[in-house]
């Protein structure tokens, strides 16, 4: 292990923002993008990730590790103790200086702070907690803070941190306990789920004390309002879930982890099927009230023989990751259950089709759906119809019968939807309700999307000096 004692701050920033890029628990997923800027940005790979704040806005965060030193040796991790990499550790004051300097320059709106395990889980959590306390209490930093909870750290440290961070996340790391045993033997499922449960209880208690009501989980139920931007009591239900009002309230009364908790799983390092993964995610949403589960496509950075080689030299399986995000979206906002999307008999998504199309083609007996009559939840299940277009359809048809031209204007993606709908009893073209026929037609459309996912550089670690206009993968229709 190479540890440099007298490292300047920018050098540390270079190492520790680069080391953080494999953490997917905000929207970027860790691929470098070359800098073309002059001056400071030209030499530094300082990470900015995009995340969603409690009011649903996409915000830029300074994404760094507190340290990339680590006493553990997780086989998939570039920072594992057996790797001979340059190591660095910030002090809380240094994190403060960087955050404030970038914040003042308008590069960022907040901080995403994770860490390797230095000395012990308690010592690590203590330093992270000191850092956020310093930012909040001494320097009155009001920006967004996403902080990692360290498995195995004492409850009192997690509790303290939760009063200063906006969001916290404890990484599940791998979908199963067996996977953890094999690849991250220092971690255990119990050590991970314990702080998750603690955060869940703290969040509920805090909401209760403030009289804030939130749905017990993020999944869409039959009676839950699903309209994006809908005013809901004291808060707003947006595309990222129910978001209570925070800042003004928080200023008067502190709130525990007001933006909720999330987690991350590495996909493809172990042999779990997609069915297994979405089932685990669904259970986490139900049982721990997570705001988000992030899926991070496995990258074999260590060329470790215990880990799968990158399939066929094709690089990171981003398409699988993308399908899981789409399925996750369907479970959270479209009322799908994991058991509808996949099963033991069909355990993996067809990477050639998005999960909603895949489901619809396997359930042709439920189609075509009549646009002028189908209820809102049925409309949501039609490929090419998203939350907004379903809402518009329901509203507009109160005053007039709708045809294909009308619904196209409302945002329906007809090239997908046309196989599954009728307007006043008519299809757009003569359609054969046949699985093979529809699959072949849709795969033509999907091929373009696939290409864009595999080649688009939105899956990347942003630099502080790039422009910030990163697209997020579309998955809501
Ligand atoms: S605990 Fe494991 S995953 Fe986290 S930094 Fe250490 S080696 Fe990497």
UniProtKB/TrEMBL annotation:
<keyword id="KW-0479">Metal-binding</keyword>
<dbReference type="InterPro" id="IPR023874">
    <property type="entry name" value="DNA_rSAM_put"/>
</dbReference>
<keyword id="KW-0949">S-adenosyl-L-methionine</keyword>
<keyword id="KW-0408">Iron</keyword>
<keyword id="KW-0411">Iron-sulfur</keyword>
<dbReference type="InterPro" id="IPR013785">
    <property type="entry name" value="Aldolase_TIM"/>
</dbReference>
<dbReference type="InterPro" id="IPR051675">
    <property type="entry name" value="Endo/Exo/Phosphatase_dom_1"/>
</dbReference>
<protein>
    <submittedName>
        <fullName>DNA modification/repair radical SAM protein</fullName>
    </submittedName>
</protein>
<dbReference type="InterPro" id="IPR010994">
    <property type="entry name" value="RuvA_2-like"/>
</dbReference>
<dbReference type="InterPro" id="IPR007197">
    <property type="entry name" value="rSAM"/>
</dbReference>
<dbReference type="InterPro" id="IPR058240">
    <property type="entry name" value="rSAM_sf"/>
</dbReference>
């Amino acid at each position: 292990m190479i540890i440099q004692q007298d490292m300047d701050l920018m050098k540390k920033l270079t190492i520790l923002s680069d080391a953080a890029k494999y953490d997917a628990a905000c929207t970027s997923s860790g691929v470098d993008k070359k800098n073309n800027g002059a001056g400071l940005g030209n030499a530094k790979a300082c990470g900015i990730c995009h995340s969603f704040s409690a009011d649903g806005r996409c915000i830029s965060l300074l994404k760094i590790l507190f340290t990339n030193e680590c006493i553990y040796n997780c086989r998939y991790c570039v920072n594992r103790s057996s790797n001979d990499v340059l190591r660095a550790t910030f002090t809380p004051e240094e994190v403060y200086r960087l955050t404030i300097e970038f914040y003042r320059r308008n590069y960022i709106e907040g901080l995403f702070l994770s860490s390797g395990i230095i000395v012990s889980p308690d010592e690590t959590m203590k330093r992270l907690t000191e850092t956020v306390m310093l930012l909040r209490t001494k320097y009155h930093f009001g920006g967004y803070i996403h902080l990692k909870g360290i498995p195995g750290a004492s409850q009192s440290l997690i509790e303290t941190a939760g009063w200063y961070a906006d969001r916290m996340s404890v990484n599940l790391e791998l979908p199963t306990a067996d996977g953890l045993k094999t690849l991250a033997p220092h971690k255990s499922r119990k050590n991970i789920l314990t702080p998750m449960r603690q955060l869940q209880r703290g969040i509920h208690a805090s909401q209760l004390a403030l009289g804030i009501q939130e749905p017990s989980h993020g999944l869409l139920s039959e009676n839950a309002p699903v309209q994006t931007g809908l005013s809901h009591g004291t808060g707003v239900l947006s595309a990222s879930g129910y978001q209570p009002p925070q800042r003004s309230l928080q200023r008067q009364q502190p709130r525990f982890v007001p933006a909720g908790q999330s987690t991350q799983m590495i996909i493809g390092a172990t042999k779990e099927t997609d069915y297994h993964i979405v089932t685990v995610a669904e259970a986490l949403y139900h049982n721990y009230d997570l705001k988000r589960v992030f899926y991070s496509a496995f990258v074999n950075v260590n060329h470790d023989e215990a880990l799968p080689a990158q399939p066929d030299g094709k690089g990171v399986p981003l398409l699988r990751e993308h399908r899981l995000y789409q399925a996750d979206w369907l479970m959270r906002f479209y009322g799908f259950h994991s058991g509808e999307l996949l099963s033991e008999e069909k355990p993996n998504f067809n990477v050639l089709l998005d999960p909603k199309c895949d489901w619809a083609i396997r359930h042709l007996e439920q189609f075509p759906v009549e646009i002028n009559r189908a209820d809102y939840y049925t409309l949501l299940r039609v490929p090419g119809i998203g939350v907004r277009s379903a809402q518009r359809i329901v509203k507009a048809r109160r005053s007039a019968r709708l045809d294909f031209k009308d619904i196209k204007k409302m945002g329906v993606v007809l090239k997908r939807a046309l196989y599954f709908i009728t307007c006043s009893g008519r299809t757009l073209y003569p359609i054969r309700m046949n699985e093979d026929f529809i699959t072949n037609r849709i795969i033509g459309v999907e091929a373009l999307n696939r290409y864009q996912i595999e080649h688009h550089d939105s899956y990347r670690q942003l630099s502080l000096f790039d422009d910030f206009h990163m697209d997020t993968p579309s998955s809501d229709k």
